[in-house]
């Protein structure tokens, strides 16, 4: 069905509201193969998952052609689920606790969320940073980050998650205390591994966040940001306003430079490339 964008057959067979299939011959072949393999759903899944089409990159090889991707020249871009986004943020920052098994964990809730009892407070930070699969689930209280990123309704069974794009998703990543803490940890990780070399910090940041090196234009943009943002941080410090600092600020490091690096890391964790699978 996915390969054909619809069901095989004429409009008179299935009504007039559906789309015509883009690959009717492929649908016929898949249907015949399904029967020949003994109606095995597992075999059909294996066939599809091992196909070259399914394993394509989501990078568009011809940006001007087939922008809706009806012909499957590339893999459709897919946004990560809230659980995967949280795990990725913790992993990149170095805060993810890989401990296996055990009871559920209770990450800190944002201010204003009423837990209505049953949500532990003051749990050890290392326990809070375990993988999202261990986050406690209450039927009438969904973890806010997961809810923003389309967590299924816990009152109902769910065969497939909805995927939406809404303003609260960006606001959760931008304003979350936990995301900012991860940005501070990531900045500390960059300083620890790359030292004070800005280019080395940017290189490592892109490899950790995006699993690729920065392009020349991206490196120049990042350097420009770090240079122009530092005076803003220095002005805030002069006015005794709070600024974010790395979790482990090295002795002798300029606080304004460190805070500037935190804001850069915060930007990476808020980017589309970080939350979408390419």
Instruction: Tell me the span between the first and last alpha carbons.
Output: 23 Å
Morphology: globular
What percentage of residues falls in helices of 4 or more residues? 40-55%
Mean pLDDT across the residues is 87
Pairing-aware structural class of the strands and helices? mainly alpha
- Counting DSSP E segments of at least 2 residues, the number of strands comes to 2
Q: How is the largest sheet built, in terms of strand order? A: 1-2
Describe the protein's architecture and organization.
The chain is mostly helical and 278 residues long. It is 46% helix and 1% strand. It has helices at 11-14, 24-36, 41-49, 82-93, 125-128, 144-148, 167-175, 177-194, 198-210, 216-238, 255-269, 272-275, and strands at 78-79, 276-277. The chain has a two-stranded antiparallel sheet with strand order 1-2. Helix 4 (82-93) runs parallel beside helix 8 (177-194), helix 8 (177-194) packs across helix 9 (198-210) and helix 10 (216-238) crosses helix 11. The chain is globular, with a radius of gyration of 24 Å.
Question: Could you give the topology of this structure?
Answer:
Blueprint: H1 11-14, H2 24-36, H3 41-49, E1 78-79, H4 82-93, H5 125-128, H6 144-148, H7 167-175, H8 177-194, H9 198-210, H10 216-238, H11 255-269, H12 272-275, E2 276-277
Antiparallel strand pairs: 1-2
Helix pairs in contact: 4-8, 8-9, 8-11, 10-11
Précis, in short:
This protein has 278 residues and is mainly α.
Features:
278 residues, mainly alpha, 12 helices, 2 strands, disordered N terminus
